[in-house]
């Protein structure tokens, strides 16, 4: 039975390890695919925007600019740009997040973009069509929607959507990119949340299948292991009870006091609550003496916790910790008298154990009080 239990523990460890490894691998695969999906959505839109600006003919536009500084990603302060459109110079404040997410890096390129988009604005439906086409080409179903927002020189904003806005609550805003010297054109991408099931491969399905199989196997092994452990405990308890039943406790005197012989040389006077071994005498506390007497008179010298409650605390105030305290005191007293007598506990029971049996004898007069 011990070998079976050891084998069961090994199977439990193996199945639990397999379950954890498969779970970690599936979670890691999901996070990796989600990052890849977001990156493809993002790079695809950037590619569409850059192609759209190139097709509008940057090379045909000539602009004079004296600023060629690149973006500084450590500076989160708003940027101030100055433009003169015929009414004198005017300053515009560009938030840092718009400045950093502009598809062009230096002011000259952004001036080109502003002039081009003034003559040839972006169409949301055209961008969305190109974006969906590129996503499908990369293996992603085209379910996106694009919004184009334009801020004019008077800070008025106009917006157009590629698709019906009724579907927007079902999707997430992924990211926004900005175009122009004032970052006046905002292109925002919307898409349905990442669906792991749609991106799953045959290997992913196999991993989920083996994960479920390992979970079922783990719980099955756990159930069998617990059942066998209970059987082992019951078998050990039966063997222990059978062995202890062969150990007699001899009543030596039943006159004024009831005296029990425990083992070969230990006497217990239940009336005077005394233990004696030769010249050694030990006084027991009332509850410890009552517990020892109850165990001696119980079948197999074994008592359930519930029976001990009734014996020591008839008023119903018995608690496990109180029983443990009384049992500890009795166990200590028995250990002082003889190492062959002990009090063991387990499975909500207490049992008196005596190491070897004795022959029944009679001692008509034993005085424990000397």
Structure commentary:
The chain is of the alpha+beta class. The protein folds into two domains: 2-191, no CATH class; 247-354, Arc Repressor Mutant, subunit A (Orthogonal Bundle). The chain contains eight helices and 14 strands. The chain has helices at residues 2-55, 96-100, 107-119, 124-137, 202-245, 286-297, 305-312, 320-337, and strands spanning 79-84, 89-94, 145-151, 157-161, 172-179, 185-191, 250-254, 258-262, 266-269, 274-277, 280-283, 302-304, 341-346, 349-354. It has a five-stranded antiparallel sheet with strand order 7-8-9-10-11, covered by helices on one side. Strands 4-3-6-5 form a four-stranded antiparallel sheet. The chain has a three-stranded antiparallel sheet with strand order 12-14-13. A hairpin with a 2-residue loop joins strand 13 (341-346) and strand 14 (349-354). Helix 1 packs across helix 4 and helix 6 crosses helix 8 (320-337). The longest helix is centred in the first third of the chain and has 54 residues, at 2-55. It is elongated. The relative contact order is 0.10. Mean pLDDT is 78; it is low at 61-73, 240-256 and 357-370. InterPro entries: Sig_transdc_resp-reg_C-effctor. GO terms for molecular function: DNA binding. The chain crosses the membrane at residues 6-31, 208-225. It comes from Bacteroides cellulosilyticus CL02T12C19. Keywords: Membrane, Transmembrane, Transmembrane helix.
């Amino acid at each position: 039975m011990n070998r079976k239990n050891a084998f069961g523990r090994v199977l439990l460890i193996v199945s639990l390890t397999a379950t954890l490894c498969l779970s970690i691998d599936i979670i890691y695969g999901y996070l990796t695919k989600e990052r890849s999906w977001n990156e493809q959505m993002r790079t695809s839109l950037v590619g569409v925007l850059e192609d759209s600006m190139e097709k509008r003919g940057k090379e045909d536009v000539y602009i004079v600019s004296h600023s060629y500084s690149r973006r500084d990603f450590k500076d989160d302060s708003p940027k101030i740009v100055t433009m003169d459109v015929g009414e004198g110079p005017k300053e515009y404040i560009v938030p840092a997040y718009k400045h950093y997410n502009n598809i062009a890096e230096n002011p000259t390129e952004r001036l080109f973009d502003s002039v081009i988009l003034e003559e040839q604005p972006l169409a949301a439906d055209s961008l969305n069509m190109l974006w969906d086409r590129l996503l499908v080409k990369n293996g992603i179903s085209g379910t996106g929607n694009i919004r184009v927002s334009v801020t004019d020189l008077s800070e008025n904003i106009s917006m157009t959507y590629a698709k019906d806005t009724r579907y927007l609550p079902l999707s997430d805003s992924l990211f926004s990119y900005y175009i122009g010297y004032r970052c006046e054109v905002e292109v925002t991408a919307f898409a349905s949340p990442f669906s792991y099931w749609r991106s799953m491969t045959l290997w992913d399905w196999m991993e989920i299948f083996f994960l479920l199989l390992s979970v079922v196997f783990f719980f099955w092994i756990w159930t069998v292991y617990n059942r066998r452990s209970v059987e082992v405990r019951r078998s050990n308890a039966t063997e222990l009870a059978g062995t202890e039943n062969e150990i007699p406790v001899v009543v030596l005197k039943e006159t004024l006091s009831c005296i029990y012989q425990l083992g070969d040389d230990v006497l217990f006077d239940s009336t005077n609550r005394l233990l004696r071994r030769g010249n050694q005498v030990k006084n027991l506390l009332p509850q410890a003496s009552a517990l020892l007497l109850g165990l001696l008179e119980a079948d197999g010298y074994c008592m359930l916790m519930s029976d001990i409650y009734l014996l020591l605390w008839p008023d119903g105030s018995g608690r496990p910790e109180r029983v443990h305290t009384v049992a500890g005191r009795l166990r200590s007293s028995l250990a002082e008298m003889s190492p062959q007598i002990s009090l063991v506990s387990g499975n909500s029971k207490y049992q008196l154990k005596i190491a070897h049996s004795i022959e029944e004898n009679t001692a008509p007069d034993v005085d424990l009080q000397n």
